[in-house]
Write a structure and sequence with these properties.
The protein has 315 residues and is mainly α. The protein is built from twelve helices and no strands. Keywords: Acyltransferase, Membrane, Transferase, Transmembrane, Transmembrane helix.
Length: 315
């Protein structure tokens, strides 16, 4: 597999994760700035769980299927197996052990779950971030639960503060939107955004501070209304945006099945760059289709269920 192609995909992956964190922070801060009523913390955590869990558990089921296609039997005791399942059911927030001692466990889905841990970290930091705002002060029970979560998280997990910068970068946008009235959907700004994205592959990782700043600039211009020459208004991009969470969770699994179970790693290792990209292009429609099904049958019902639960709790 050619290194240039790998570097390009790696750059896209890092940039995507940064923008996911920025979107999370943007939505959070925007809610804080514009909420007129007292914030409903129960609704927040319920909606977040049902937003992330359904598609995640579907992807986890597929991971289990792949593991047992490879292993064909249980290689660990039932208690160890159940404990490993428990960690994965909890989004691998505190630990991500091998399932059935299968060394492929953590790479079947391309190792994407690390970003969900940071999502949950941010969610449980949210009560403390909102304390300075009187109408947003959370109940004592929410603060206690958040403290317990954070203590356990920092005990078992190393926190890369480079990712925190992404959250901070996304948090800037709501303030700019609130206090800036300029038109940012211009050809000049669109050109700058395109140049920002074209620059990302020149960096090995988005942890590079210059790369991070470039991504933050691009995100904030888009948040301020730039549509990149109108491209972001296209219906197909809106569609891909709706299914992107499922795509994020499932693309690695489909790649693993293709290259490991169908083609074979030895054969794939000898692919030319052209063969590799042709294979990727051939897989792409299946990734989009499976992601669409996941959105329709897992993500969307999960969001609707959370609304029903919240509505009942408010009665």
């Amino acid at each position: 597999m050619a290194s240039r192609g790998f570097k390009f995909l790696q750059s896209i992956r890092f940039g995507l994760c940064c923008h996911i964190f920025m979107i999370t922070a943007y939505l959070f801060v925007n809610k804080l700035l514009n909420t007129k009523d007292k914030y409903d913390w129960n609704s927040f955590f319920i909606s977040r769980f049902f937003r992330l869990a359904p598609a995640y558990y579907f992807s986890f089921f597929l991971i289990l299927c792949v593991i047992f296609i490879i292993d064909k039997q249980l290689y660990v005791g039932p208690i160890k197996f159940i404990l490993s399942l428990g960690h994965w059911m909890a989004f691998t927030t505190f630990n991500n052990p091998f399932i059935n001692n299968n060394g492929y466990t953590k790479i079947i889905n391309a190792g994407v779950l690390w970003s969900l841990r940071y999502e949950w970290l941010f969610y449980f930091c949210r009560p403390f971030i909102s304390i300075p705002i009187p109408k947003e002060i959370p109940p004592v029970r929410i603060i206690i639960i958040s403290i317990v979560f954070l203590v356990i998280f920092f005990k078992y997990r190393f926190v890369d503060f480079n990712h925190i910068y992404s959250f901070l970068g996304g948090a800037i946008a709501p303030f700019l939107i609130k206090y800036t009235k300029n038109n940012f959907d211009t050809k000049l700004i669109s050109t700058l955004v395109v140049l920002c994205f074209l620059a990302i592959p020149f960096f090995h990782s988005s942890d590079n501070i210059v790369s991070k700043i470039i991504l933050i600039i691009a995100f904030n211009f888009i948040a301020l209304g730039n549509t990149i020459f109108g491209v972001l208004k296209k219906s197909y991009l809106i569609f891909l945006g709706e299914i992107c969470y499922s795509t994020y969770l499932l693309h690695g699994i489909l790649l693993f099945i293709t290259f490991h179970l169908m083609i074979g790693t030895k054969t794939a290792a000898n692919f030319t760059e052209l063969q590799y990209w042709l294979c990727i292009f051939a897989i792409t429609p299946f990734v989009v289709f499976i992601s669409f099904l996941s959105f329709i049958y897992f993500e969307n019902p999960g969001m609707n269920l959370s609304k029903k639960i919240i509505k009942k709790l408010r009665k």
